[in-house]
Amino acid sequence: MDKVQDNRAWFLIIPVFLIVAFSAVVPLMTVVNYSVQEIFGPGQTFFVGTEWFEAVLKDDRLHDALVRQIIYSLAVLLIEIPLGILIALGMPGGRSAKTSLTLVLLALPLLIPFNVVGTIWQIFGRGDIGLLGATFRAIGIDYNYTNNSAHAWITVLVMDVWHWTSLVALLCYAGLQSIPPAFYQAAKIDGASKWAVFRYIQLPKMRGVLIIAVLLRFMDSFMIYTEPFVLTGGGPGNSTTFLSQYLTQMAVGQFDIGKAAAFSIVYFLIVLLFSFIFYTIITRTGEGEKK
Amino acid sequence: MATIQFDNLGHSYHPHPSKPEDYALRRLSQEWEDGKAYALLGPSGCGKSTLLNIISGLLVPSEGRVLFDGLDVTRCTPEERNIAQVFQFPVIYDTMTVYENLAFPLRNRKVPEADVDRRVRQVAEALDLTADLKKRAQRLTPDAKQKISMGRGLVRSDVAAILFDEPLTVIDPHTKWILRRKLRQIHEEYRLTMIYVTHDQVEALTFADKVAVMYEGAMVQLGTPQELFENPEHTFVGYFIGSPGINLMPCTLGNDHALVDGIAIPLPDRAVPTVGGKFELGIRPEFLELTRSGSAGAIPVQVTGVDDLGTSKLATVRLGSQTLKARLSEEQEIPALDAAIRFPTRWTKLYRDSHLVG
Questions:
Q1: Could you list the residue ranges that cross the membrane (chain A) (predicted)?
Q2: Residues A188, B347: Cα–Cα separation, whole Å
């Protein structure tokens, strides 16, 4: 075998390098570049080192937003993952009209654009003309998301659950469908209870899709922007101002490019860190050696 | 352990079966003895898995009844019937250790932990799993996984029957042989009623006391391996069992002989029906005698080929328009020019519409 020594293989890799460079590396480096400079205008930039990062880490409003964000994302996961699994377990299997109908119905919310979802709930929850708001008002509950932080919060959360639980359910459903019938038959013969079937067959077989579901829902909810923006613009007060909201205010509202860039990088690292933690936990619990 | 009875059992996946072809399992009445090893043998789609699932209780038959020790269990769940079943592909509980896997059926039935431990160790010993007991089941090879599946079937000492649905499909040939011996030993030791589904005749014949051959939804013969070989009651049994299968020749009937392409072949003295249906004459290659023409009762043939199989020779001969195979010993001379064959009447079978009549 003659091994040809030349560099033609680079031609195959260069397109990928270019795409990755322009889609990820270059924008990211731009942000890094901004994050270490004070920018007054075109050509008026000064290197400031880590000052922006220090400012970001000391920013109280940012701390509040981060805490709010973490609570929000955890709430989303705690509601959507179990609910999605439950829905998937209850869905009809096999190829029937019932199955197709269920799948289409479940997929519907996923097809609606974010800001439309926000608008739907914004109107739905209005006390004067919205079905939900008016119903609450009629039965004597003073529901008002524009001046009650808890109401605004719950509305954003319910909106997210309504919008995205389907995704979790569909993923879990796919996981469940891949379990061969012999497993259920064997469990029946082994005298396993319904809970044991779930615990020892269905849940372990869903692990792969659950990793994806948890990561997707975490990352998405951690970057939520549109829904609270459409509903109350982050209010009342700062009650639904999550990280993205605050970042946008900083970058676009106050035109604090340097600080916003530093914030972006910290934000990115936080998402990366949490995703890594979730991924590790789920894979470990699945494969860890039992004593 | 239990005696298993089928009473007019039949199953169709169609809601309103009308033709015999609509049945995945055709009418069947039979009794299977307690403590014996049975094999269900047949090609894919012959209804053997349907029958197995009916016995195990995973499928409720559309017609007839299943009785265990005289008790109607047709509508009972596998658990109520106290059945164990091993499936074609290994079914293991991924997150459990091998030990927990084996203990699972017992723990679900609230067996005292001391007994669980004793049984699990016993079964693990029998299946060579002792070294793996503490390992996660998920990490083992397919062989070991299938052993766990089998172990979960064997671990319960009080089962009515253990059902095996082609359990050795995923196992490599060498281990297959060892495991089959193991099962056989376990059977002989505990006298469990075992039912073993397979499409491999060697597996069925070496494992079972009695083999049920299935074909197109019907059980065409239930018998010992010897009976299936010497006296196939259906042309399919003759064809499916034995390698090569039985020689079959379409024929017409004379008084005491059959005519194959105008050549008379003596028939056994048994009562021979002369009317109706399509007649075929069958003889196993092992029983067809090759001699020189001129000897008594010999019919001249043309030898078209000989395959030396090492332990025996397989001669291909032409009789009229028919091609027949004859198995000969290694030493036997094969006459080149004046070959003839003889049909020993004892081994010459007459079939009408595929069923043995004489």
A1: 9-32, 70-89, 101-124, 152-176, 208-226, 260-282
A2: 48
On whether the B247-356 domain is CATH 2.40.50.140, my answer is yes
- For residue A213, the domain's CATH number is 1.10.3720.10
Does the beta-carbon distance from A189 to B105 stay under 8 Å? Answer: yes
Nearest CA in chain B to A205: B94
Which 177-216 residues of chain A touch chain B by CB within 8 A? 180, 182-183, 185-186, 188-193, 196, 200-201, 204-205
Tokens of A14: 């260069």
DSSP secondary structure of A195-224: HHHIIIIIHHHTHHHHHHHHHHHHHHHHT-
- Do the chains contact at B104 and A192, CB–CB below 8 Å? yes
Which CATH class for the B4-236 domain?
alpha beta
Q: CATH 3.40.50.300 in chain B: give the residue spans.
A: 4-236
Give the single-character DSSP code of A288: P
Q: Using CA atoms, how far apart are residues A31 and A39, in angstroms rounded to an integer?
A: 13
pLDDT tens column, A222-267? 888 888 888 887 778 788 888 888 888 888 888 788 888 888 888 8
Q: How far apart are CA B63 and CA B42, in angstroms?
A: 22
For residue A27, being part of any structural domain is answered with no
Distance CA B72, CA B77 (A): 12
The answer on pLDDT for B245 being more than 60 is yes
Contacts by A6-15, CB closer than 8 A, 24 or more apart = none
Number of domains in chain A: 1
Nearest CA in chain A to B159: A189
Are B168 and B10 in contact, with CB atoms under 8 Å apart? no
B76 touching chain A per CB within 8 A: no
Picking from A182, A201, A290, the nearest residue to B93 by CB comes out as A201
Which residue from B48, B53, B101 is spatially nearest to B78, judged by alpha carbons? B53
Q: Write the DSSP symbol of residue B136.
A: B
* Cβ within 8 Å, pair B94-A182: no
Q: Residue length, chain A? A: 291
ipTM score assigned to the predicted complex: 0.72
Helix axes B98-108, B113-126, angle to 10 degrees: 130
Q: With cut-offs at 50, 70 and 90, classify the pLDDT of residue B269.
A: low
Residue in chain A lying closest to B106 (CA): A190
pLDDT tens figures, A131-186: 888 888 888 888 888 888 888 888 889 999 999 999 999 999 999 998 988 898 88
Q: Which range marks the domain in which residue A73 is found?
A: 59-287
Handedness of CA A187, A193, A194, A200 (dihedral sign): negative
A-B contacts (CB, under 8 Å)? 55
Where are the CATH 2.40.50.140 domain residues in chain B? 247-356
CB contact under 8 A, A186 and B87: yes
State the smallest CA–CA distance between residue B133 and chain A in angstroms: 11
Q: Please check whether residue B58 touches A, CB under 8 A.
A: yes
Is any Cβ of chain A less than 8 angstroms from the Cβ of B49? no
